[in-house]
């Protein structure tokens, strides 16, 4: 996958630099061969995704259970469509409408990524609430107040003329700092957010919902692939469950 998207990015760079048409054609052919090879290697992934969905059904958290199960089910459908595409491109089923099945495949892929990002957002919210609760208990134990006068009155109070916007800006800044602290303290969650966000550009472009161009698609696919390789090398970076 990393090699395929590296070829996509390289092809875009060569086109921008005015490389010879023959070289560009060779890079596109290599990318096509890598894509077809990946489809061959993923023939059993639908069954694996269904097994993962069966395991996710038993999660105790309702939101996590819904997001992860629906994500795996959509991945299973995405891989099934991918298998049909492989059969068409390899000549086993020459009458397959590849454009139609490709669109179906990317729709399932997009919905799976949306579920993944929803799961990430839910976990981030839980961690932010926990971090905020811990901070509040520390403040009460030390006898201090919340920073910036959020809980107390003063110049930032909404009742004070001209104090509404500064207080909103302060609250937003604190939320951003809290988000950064949570993500910094949870590398698996951070990697999953970045990987899913990068992958999101691929189906958006292929479905015509947001045209990014082959350069952006290649770069995002390459970054996502490298992060996936990193989670294989360091299993503790894989988000669980």
Structure write-up:
There is one protein chain. The protein is mostly helical. The chain has one domain (1-131, 178-237). The chain is built from eight helices and no strands. The chain has helices at residues 2-16, 21-41, 45-56, 62-89, 98-142, 164-184, 187-206, 214-233. The longest helix is centred in the middle third of the chain and has 45 residues, at 98-142. Mean pLDDT is 89; it is low at 146-161.
Briefly summarize what is shown.
This is Peroxisomal membrane protein 11B. The chain is built from eight helices and no strands. It starts with a helix and ends in an 8-residue tail after the last helix.
Structural class: mainly alpha
Low-confidence stretches: 146-161
How much is the average pLDDT?
89
Order of helices and strands: HHHHHHHH
What's the helical proportion of residues? Answer: over 70%
Strand content: under 5%
The end-to-end span amounts to: 24 Å
Counting structural domains, the number is: 1
Care to count the β-strands? 0
Number of helical runs?
Answer: 8
Radius of gyration: 23 Å
Largest sheet: none
The dominant shape is globular
């Amino acid at each position: 996958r990393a090699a395929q998207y590296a070829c996509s990015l390289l092809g875009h760079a060569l086109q921008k630099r005015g490389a010879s048409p023959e070289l560009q054609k060779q890079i596109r052919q290599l990318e096509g061969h890598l894509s077809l090879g990946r489809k061959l290697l993923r023939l059993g992934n639908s069954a694996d995704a269904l097994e993962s969905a069966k395991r996710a059904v038993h999660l105790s958290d309702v939101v996590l259970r819904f997001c992860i199960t629906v994500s795996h089910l959509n991945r299973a459908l995405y891989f099934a469509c991918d298998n049909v595409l492989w059969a068409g491109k390899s000549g086993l089923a020459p009458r397959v409408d590849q454009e139609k099945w490709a669109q179906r495949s990317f729709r399932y892929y997009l919905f799976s990524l949306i579920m993944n990002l929803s799961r990430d957002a839910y976990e981030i919210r839980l961690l932010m609430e926990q971090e905020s609760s811990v901070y509040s208990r520390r403040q009460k134990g030390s006898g201090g107040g919340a920073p910036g006068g959020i809980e107390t009155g003063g110049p930032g109070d909404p009742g004070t003329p001209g104090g509404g916007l500064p207080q909103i800006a302060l609250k937003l800044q604190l939320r951003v700092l809290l988000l950064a602290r949570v993500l910094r303290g949870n590398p698996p969650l951070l990697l999953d957010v970045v990987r899913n966000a990068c992958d999101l550009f691929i189906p958006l472009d292929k479905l015509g919902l947001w045209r990014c161009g082959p350069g952006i698609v290649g770069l995002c696919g390459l970054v996502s692939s490298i992060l996936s390789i990193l989670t294989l090398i360091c299993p503790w970076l894989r988000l669980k469950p």
